[in-house]
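Reply to dn_fold:

You asked what the input looked like. This is it:
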Amino acid sequence: MAKTETQITIRVTNEMKEQLERQAEKERRSVANMVRNVMEDYLKEKSGAD
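and this is what came back:
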C-alpha cells in the first residue's frame, strides 16, 4: 500500500514554537494539525490567485 502522506521538517524560533503551541492548545488540536491546516489554506488562496 502506497503512503499518501510524507513528513517535512522546518525550523522556527523558540518564540514561534511557543505561539504555535498556545494557539494549538486553544483550538484543541496538535501543532502539526494546525500548521497543516494553515498551509492548506495558504495554498488554496494562492492557487485561486493564478
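The two ends are 34 Å apart (CA to CA).
Hope that clears it up.
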